[in-house]
Design a protein that fits this description.
Length: 232
């Protein structure tokens, strides 16, 4: 039992401090990453995620924990939706995203004012996960319909979308049942949520590397083109 608790605690700290990975890569490749607004979204989200997790780990005041959970659900939804919104080409679907986001915000506020929940706001988290997954799948659908997109994995945005999807889908059922399961069982299964958080941060970091690499390649191609132009 002690060994199991040690492993669970290890994944808790790995999940929390893995938030520094995308932040670190963002800073390391500052000259390139600062030019891309999408990477700013991921960096700010990672900072906010870390602050929230630290608060949840050390705070003992339950109302404060509930507030952190609720506010994080809203801000995570906002960050993810904004990132996907920038990638979507369809104006109609963008409008749908805006309307749904307003409705979700209204639902989230109402839920937190009216509903009584134990520790974690499972229902809003579940709704958030479903909406983000739908938006993400639509982005992938658009990419598949785009004849100019030959290798989607060469785009940094693909890895960020993949990170969101794995993270939300992988922890979906644990979040849903967290409010009705005994605390001991939640703690036992929470390790899977932590694993998907770690995967999310690794893929975010990979996305930054993909962006930097593609930027360097574009720069080299541009120089080559200019040289050929001069020679001709």
């Amino acid at each position: 039992m002690a060994k199991t608790n040690t492993i669970e605690n290890l994944f808790v700290y790995l999940a929390i401090y893995s938030d520094f990975l995308p932040i670190l890569f963002f800073i390391l490749f500052w000259k390139k990453s600062k030019l891309e607004r999408g990477l700013w979204v991921i960096a700010i989200y990672s900072i906010y995620d870390y602050i929230t997790n630290i608060g949840l780990l050390y705070l003992e005041h339950n109302p404060s924990k509930k507030f952190l959970y609720s506010s994080f659900t809203f801000f995570e939804f906002f960050f993810f939706v904004y990132f996907i919104y920038r990638l979507i080409k369809s104006r109609l679907f963008k409008l749908v995203m805006v309307v749904i986001s307003i409705l979700f915000t209204a639902f989230l506020i109402t839920y937190n004012l009216v509903a009584t929940f134990k520790g974690i706001d499972s229902v809003p988290i579940g709704v958030e996960a479903i909406l983000i997954l739908v938006f993400a799948f639509y982005y992938l659908y658009e990419q598949m319909q785009d004849t100019e997109t030959l290798f989607i994995y060469s785009k940094y945005s693909f890895w960020i979308i993949l990170a969101m999807m794995l993270y939300l889908a992988g922890s979906f059922f644990i979040y849903i049942y967290a409010s009705i399961m005994p605390t001991e069982k939640v703690a036992h299964y929470w390790v899977f949520t932590n694993i998907f958080c770690i995967i999310k941060n690794i893929l975010f970091s990979l996305a930054i590397l993909v962006y930097v690499r593609s930027s360097v390649k574009k720069g080299k191609d541009s120089i080559g083109y200019k040289n050929r132009y001069v020679l001709n």
